[in-house]
Amino acid sequence: MNHNTKSFIGIELLYVIGIIAISFSSIFVRWSDADVAVIAMYRLYLTNLLLLPVAWKYRHVLFRLTARQWGWLAASGAMLALHFLLWMASLRLTTVASSTVILTLEPVMVMVGSYFLFRTRTNSVMLIGMGIAIAGSVVIGAGDFKLSGDALLGDLLSFFGTVAVAIHVLIGKKLMEKIDSFPYSFWVFAFAATFLAFYNVAQGNRFTGYEAKEWGIFLLLAIVPTLFGHYLFNWLLKYMNATAVSMSVLGEPVISSILAWVLLKEALTGYQLGAGLFILFGVWLFIRHGDRAKATKTLSAS
Length: 302
Prior knowledge:
It is a multi-pass membrane protein. By secondary structure, the protein is mostly helical.
């Protein structure tokens, strides 16, 4: 096994770790009683607090950015903040399965955006893999979709949150052609958290007085789905195309639904578990056969 093959397998392993990590996000949010905007704000601020030792290493490049780059970092942060705000709110109105299955539209949105922005082409194997994964995701959430009341509002919030995160991913891919993944992630998280802080002030949400349990949940969200999820996927944008990275959300309904079944006692049927296997197969097909050449080429040049 040559160096490039080992490196690509390492990237695949990190990709799987990222999928598992982000799948815990919905569980932690459901455990918390705090306002979703407060949860998202502290999740991001605590992430950057944990990253401060690494920030010292990058101190000479953290501020070497152009005015245009600062503007796009703020835009990416705004989209990330909007995603967290809308998607976390959806979890209060609908089930984990319904909310996360709508996120599977993200790679489609990113694929279309990548074609127009970066001329990234999608081959037939990638499309087949994406189709299999999305079909499996629909099966997982189909029995749970409701077209009335709070559930419909929750589904709509999840949809618009998906649009926001797709824009966030596309901006990130463009920015990281010129800047490293750490300065990008650090400043995007800072901007997103600050936008959420202003929102909390406007809404009159309290910043203090939370029980130890809530602070523990905020910290878990910072460590598991943010550091080992979002930050990891931002780093992978250096080695994979934006559509491939966004495909990670197709694995989230599988893991999230299983976690919700175990930890939240939400219903999960046998056919939904079977659909989960189709999702994982579709994601594997997309990554293995659609992005191998690009990842190997990038690693060889680094």
